[in-house]
Fold each of these.
Amino acid sequence: MTEDLEEKLYRDYPTLYRNRQQTLMIEGVACGDGWCRLIDTMSFLLSKHDQKIRAEQVKEKLGALNFYVQFGDKYSTGITMLAYTISQVTCEICGAPGVRYEHKGWLTTRCACHRPSHEIKEIDVDCSSVDDLELGFGWALLVKILLESAKWHTEHNAMPAATINVKKVDGQLLVEFVGGNEMTRGMIDFINHYAQRIDEHSGQPAE
Ligand SMILES: [Zn+2]
C-alpha cells in the first residue's frame, strides 16, 4: 500500500495499529491501494467497538484481503470475514468491481482494466444475478455477498439464523436484521458503512 495511505491509517486508528514493531504489522499493509476503503471501514468499526483490539497482520493472500487481529470477538470476526469475501470481487489496484484470476499459478483479484495481460484463466465470476434486489449493481453485489455469507455461516458455522431486510433511506443503503448474533451485527455494520464509500450503480469507489 502507498506509504501516505498507510501512515494515514496509523494516524487515524492509533490503538488498533499500536505496537506495530511487535507484530507482523512490521511488514506494513501488504496489499494494493484498491482495498484501502475495505481496510479503513474495518479499522473504523473495530476501533469504535473495542480499543483492546489490535491489528496483527494485513496482507493479500490468494487474491483476498486477510486482516488478522488480536483480542477480537464474534463482532470483529463478522467484520473481517465479510471484508475478506468482498475483497474477492474488488480490484486490488483500484477498488472497482473485479473477479479473481489465476496468473502463472498466482491468484489475483482485478477489474477489467487491471487484469493480467496474458495467461489468464478466470476462476470466479461472482457478479451475476444481482439485479433482482432493486438496487444498483454496486450495492446489489455487496448485499448478495452479505446474504450468501450469512446463509453459509448459519449452515456451517453455528451462526443463529437472521432475517435480513434491505432498503434505501435518504439515498443510503440501510440493512437491518432480526436474530443472528454479534457476528451478524459485525457483518451488517460493515456493509452499511462500506456501501457509503461505493457508488450504488457502478460499484466504483465513491470518493
Ligand atoms: Zn482495477
Note: The chain has a mean pLDDT of 92.
Amino acid sequence: MDYPKAKRFLASLKRKKVLITFHSLGDLDAVCSALALSWHLGKKAVVAAPDRLTSEARKYVALCEGTVLNFASVELRGFDCVVVDSSSPYLLSHLEGKKIAAIFDHHAINEGSVKAANAFIDANASSSSEIIAQLISKPDRKVAEALLVGLIADSARFKNSNARTLEVAGKLLSASGKSMWEVSTFASHDEDISERIETLASCKRLHVARAGNLLVAVTKVRSFAAHVADALVSLGADVAIVGEAGKEARVSARCSDRVPPEFSLVPLMEEAGKMIGGVGGGHRHAATATGSNVSALDGALSVCMKVAEEKLSKGAQIKEIEW
Ligand SMILES: [Mn+2]
C-alpha cells in the first residue's frame, strides 16, 4: 500500500463533507477506525453504519461518546463516501450502485471486491485501525485510544501482529495517555447469553476428525459463527469451521497456534466462498466466506473439512472421532 499517497488523499478530504461507513455488523475495528478517521477529519465528517453493530462495538461507541448514524437515514448528496474495513460486496450491500471515493482495508482484495476511486489496501496490517493510525501523525488522546482498541480487537490481542503492529500500538498507547490494562478492557469481549447458548448448542452438531495430532472441527449455527469458531479453538480444536445459514450463507474459520506455519485458512475460505455463490478471504488464522446460496452450505462445509484434514495430516491417518 502506498502510505504517502494515502496521507495526501486524507489531507485532500479535510475540506470536504465525508461520510465514513463500513461492513454489515460493524465490529470494533470497523467502528473505531471509522470514528477515529472522522474525528481526525473534523466536523464535516460523519460515520454511518449499514445495520446494527456488534455488542462490544456498541459498548465502545457509548463509552467514547461517538456518533454512529444509520446509513439509510443519511442524504448522501454532497458527501464523499469512504469505506473502512471491507471491500466485500456481500458485506457492503448498502453501497450498491454508489460512488466510493476510497476504501481503507486490511483484507486482501479479489476480482469480486467492491470498486473505489482509491483503494488503500494493506493485507499485512493487523487491522484497519493499524492502517489509519499510520496516516495520522499526531493523533489526539481520543483518536489514539479508539485506534488502539480497534487494533487490539482485530489483532486477536496481538496474536496476529508483526513488529510494525507493536510499533504502531506503542505510539498509540503513549498518545492515548491510558494504561494498556485500561485500553485492553475496552477491547475485551463480554459474551452475551445468546452467544453462549449458540456456542453450547453448536457442540451438539459438532463433527471432529483427528489428522495426526491436530483436530479439525466443523459445525453449523444459526448466528454468531465467528464467535463460535473462536470458542471451538479455545475448547481444543486446531481448525474450527462454522457454517451459518441465515438470509445468506456464511462460513467462519479459525485455527490454533498449533497448526504448521504453512497452513492458511485463506485458500480454504476462497474455495468455500465460490461454492456458496459468493466470496471468501481473510487472514491465515481467521477467515470468512459469504454467499447467497444457502443450500450449498452443507456441501461447502464437508469440502472444507476434507481439505483441512488432508492439508494437516501430512500422510498420517485421518480418523473421524465418534462420540
Ligand atoms: Mn478489521
Note: Residues 186 and 288 are 25 Å apart (CA to CA).
